[in-house]
Specification:
This protein is α+β, with helices and mostly antiparallel strands. It has helices at 13-16, 19-55, 63-71, 83-88, 99-114, 119-140, 149-166, 172-187, 192-204, 206-210, 213-224, 226-230, 237-241, 245-268, 270-280, 291-303, 325-329, 332-335, 353-357, 372-387; strands at 57-60, 75-77, 146-148, 309-314, 320-324, 361-364, 392-393, 417-419. It has a single domain (59-222, 237-419), classed as Cytochrome p450 (Orthogonal Bundle).
């Protein structure tokens, strides 16, 4: 190639490139520039769409707006509940959006729970709860009179619900393992080993559940709405319908937390515990007519609602909302400057209209919200206090000072020991 140029000439690279190659090079540069610009625009559009989608998760802190959404037919349960189907095999109105299923399920549960409003059924329930406490405390108690409060509450609440409400006499394996398994899977949703163990527990107790008339009624309702369930493309259809967690989770999960946090607050307020113990030991007072106990439970539900957030999705716009129940319950304009302070006496008088609007511990549709939740939780608290009227926190355990709210994350105070 050197023979093509005179000796001593200054040759520039661009001059040496053939015209066709120069054209191709320039075209490539232009194409790359356009492509880069196009990708940048696409990236910006994708970012905008994602940002807009994220913005669609609206946080609702207004009590009026929350109630309007919860009553509306335009909002359905959020897809976040779908994990209950995949992990716990639950196919009840908590996970399946179907108006007929919700109405039928709710009405049946209301009729079932109404039985315990009768004096004789209530006394029967209290008797069962007392027996279950007598059974569990010696099993859990250590040599030094100490026991784990959370284990006691979880097991007694579960056993009382199964025995007293469903008439199911489950074996000890289920009573001791099921509470921790459910809570474990709430956090570790892909743990197949835990899911397998969960199924084993119910297989081993299948005969006990089969004999439960109430559970059979619930199963029938689910079976009669099989089309709504199958429309969601759910696998293992029959297995999920026959899963007792369809009634255990709504009946137990909320109740044990109400009992647990009520007892934690009583431990932080020993004078209040002493006063309650005196009232409950009065023969003329029961958990059903003890105003102080009712106020304690209501204040616990206000400060520590079992469901802190409720998620809904608009069926037409796709808008997703998170109703912040805890924020609504702690609203100072409704509850006063001490809204974040445990003060049960605020419920001794009739609530103002604003306070009633700002009280949603069981949403607006839970069948237990009117009476049963207070009866059931109150009976367990009463029988526990009667069994050990002077229970205190063990010296190696600790709770926050009363000027701070308790931690409501799952497994909080899981290792707290009490002396009985």
């Amino acid at each position: 190639m050197t023979g093509d140029f005179p000796s001593g000439s200054t040759i520039y690279f661009a001059e040496w490139i053939p015209v066709s190659l120069t054209y191709n090079y320039q075209t490539t540069i232009m194409f790359s520039t356009v492509l880069f610009s196009g990708l940048s625009i696409i990236g910006a559009i994708i970012y905008f769409i994602r940002y807009k989608y994220k913005k669609q998760l609206n946080i609702i802190t207004s009590a009026d707006q929350a109630r309007e959404i919860l009553k509306s037919d335009q909002y359905v349960r959020h897809i976040s509940n779908a994990w209950l189907i995949n992990t716990l095999s639950i196919v009840n109105p908590f996970t399946i959006h179907d108006k007929s299923l919700l109405k039928t399920f709710k009405n049946r549960v209301i009729l079932i729970l109404a039985n315990w409003y009768k004096e004789d059924k209530y006394e029967e329930l209290v008797f069962v709860i007392g027996k279950r406490i007598d059974y569990h405390i010696p099993l859990l108690q250590l040599n030094n009179r100490k026991l784990c409060l959370s284990k006691l509450v979880k097991q007694v609440t579960l056993d009382s619900f199964l025995t007293g409400v469903l008439n199911v006499n489950a074996n000890d394996d289920l009573l001791t393992e099921l509470p921790d398994l459910i809570i474990h899977l709430w956090k570790n949703r892909d743990d197949k080993k835990a899911q397998t163990r969960l199924k084993e527990l119910f297989v081993n107790n299948n005969d006990q559940f089969t004999q439960s008339e109430i559970w059979q009624q619930i199963q029938t309702i689910l079976s009669n709405h099989s089309s709504a369930i199958s429309n969601m493309g759910i696998n293992d259809f029959d297995e999920k319908i026959s899963n007792p967690l369809n009634i255990i989770v709504p009946g137990w999960e909320t109740m044990w937390r109400v009992v647990f946090y009520s007892l934690l607050e009583l431990l932080r307020h020993p004078k209040l515990l002493e006063e309650l113990s005196l009232q409950l030991n009065d023969q003329s007072t029961s958990s059903q007519n003890c105003l102080l106990l009712e106020c304690i439970i209501k204040e616990t539900l206000r400060l520590y609602p079992p469901t802190k957030n409720i998620y809904r999705t608009h069926i037409e716009t796709g808008e997703e909302v998170r109703i912040d129940i805890q924020h609504i319950h702690h609203n100072k304009s409704a509850w006063g400057s001490d809204a974040c302070t445990f003060r049960p006496d605020r419920f001794q008088e009739k609530l103002t209209d604003e306070q009633q609007k700002h009280y949603l511990p069981f949403s607006i549709s839970c069948p237990a919200r009117h009476k049963f939740a207070y009866i059931f939780a109150g009976a367990i608290i009463t029988e526990l206090i009667k069994y050990c009227p002077t229970f205190t926190i063990a010296e190696e355990s600790m709770l926050p000072s009363t000027d701070k709210l308790l931690d409501v994350t799952r497994n909080s105070y899981n290792d707290l020991l009490i002396l009985v």
